[in-house]
Amino acid sequence: MLSYQHAFHAGNLADLHKHALQAWMLDYLTAKPKPLSYLETHAGRGLYDLSGAEAAKTGEAAAGITRALSENWLAADHPLRRALSDIRARHGGTAYPGSPLIAAHFLRPDDSAHLAELHPAEHQALSQVAGFAHLHRQDGFDMAQALCPPTPRRGMLLIDPSYEIKADYQTIPGQIAKLARKWNVGVIALWFPILTDDRQAAMVTALTHAHPEALLSQVRFPPARPGHGMVGSGMLIINPPYGLTNEARRIEALYDRL
Questions:
Q1: In sequence order, which residues have a C-beta less than 8 Å from that of residue 184 and are 6 or more positions away?
Q2: Domain 6-256 = CATH 3.40.50.150
Q3: Which of 110, 160, 198, 256 is catalytic?
Q4: How many CA atoms lie within 13 A of 39 on its CB side?
Q5: Rounded distance, CA 183 to CA 113, Å?
Q6: 117 known ligand binder
Q7: Rounded CA gap, 258 and 253, in Å?
Q8: CA-based nearest residue to 241, from 59, 84, 5, 26
Q9: Is 105 annotated as a binding residue?
Q10: In this structure, which of 85, 128, 183, 225 has its CB flanked by the most CB atoms within 10 Å?
């Protein structure tokens, strides 16, 4: 059974990068009065408490979203800040949303959402906060391949593995190639870590060669603690919405100052 639990890392600098772009895309997509589909392959529990023991143990949120809010990295009207304010109004001032609840903030009654989470405890926790979505306790790639192209055909797929399965780096380009062929109008967004040993590099090269029109956004930051292997965050987005490149470059510039 997979052991990764995101509660130790929720709200860190990688989450900030990923969620700022996710929220921007969903805000853009839902501005048009056409229904959409939102799919997520590795949903996690959906809601985290930054005052909990897990967050306190690593301190990653303090260096991420907590610092970003105190230093106003995000404007008051930024989509992520709006979503966070709404979720904290309902769940408390130390709540932090995973990507499912960020999506829930933007999705409308006519939209369709499908969330996959294989870990039993994380799936159970997700079921308590994700009543807006169809939940799937199965491999997320199996779910995505079975549902794509979804109905409605307009929409977004977020692929956010833990990469606890090391073979993901080799198999993800093939998975995305199949999904992009099936759902050629979908926004397909992949998050990946940037690691000190660069094990992600071959995957990123394969994806950029196969999808030359995709947006690649990468940021770097200090390791969370001495010896920690993750030193950055990446997003590769096929069919990026208009204007996303400018937002990605703005977010990247924030990290350049770290």
A1: none
A2: yes
A3: 160
A4: 30
A5: 16
A6: yes
A7: 9
A8: 26
A9: no
A10: 183
Task: Tell me which residue of 221, 215, 229, 217 sits closest to 256, measured CA to CA.
Answer: 221
- For the chain, the farthest-separated pair of C-alpha atoms sits apart, in whole angstroms, at 48
Measured CA angle at 81 (ends 154, 26), to 5 deg: 0
CB 188 within 8 A of CB 70: no
The C-alpha atoms of residue 237 and residue 34 are separated, in whole angstroms, by: 21
For the chain, the structural domain boundaries read 6-256
Q: Tell me the DSSP string of 105-125.
A: HH--TT-EEEEE--SHHHHHH
Q: Is 111 annotated to bind ligand?
A: no
pLDDT digits (tens, 9 = 90+) for 142-201: 999 999 999 999 999 999 999 988 899 999 999 999 999 999 999 999 999 999 999 999
Q: Please state, as a whole number, how many other Cβ atoms lie within 10 Å of the Cβ of residue 84.
A: 23
Cα–Cα distance, 112 to 110 (Å, whole number): 7
For residue 168, say whether it is annotated as part of any ligand binding site.
no
Identify whether the C-beta of residue 9 lies closer than 8 Å to the C-beta of residue 60: yes
Catalytic-residue membership of 160: yes
If one counts every other C-beta atom within 10 angstroms of the C-beta of residue 115, the result is: 29
179: left (phi over 0), alpha (psi -120 to 50) or beta: alpha
71: annotated binding-site residue? no
Compute, in degrees rounded to 10, the torsion defined by CA atoms 197, 200, 201, 205.
170
Q: What angle do CA 212, 204, 96 make, to 5 degrees?
A: 110
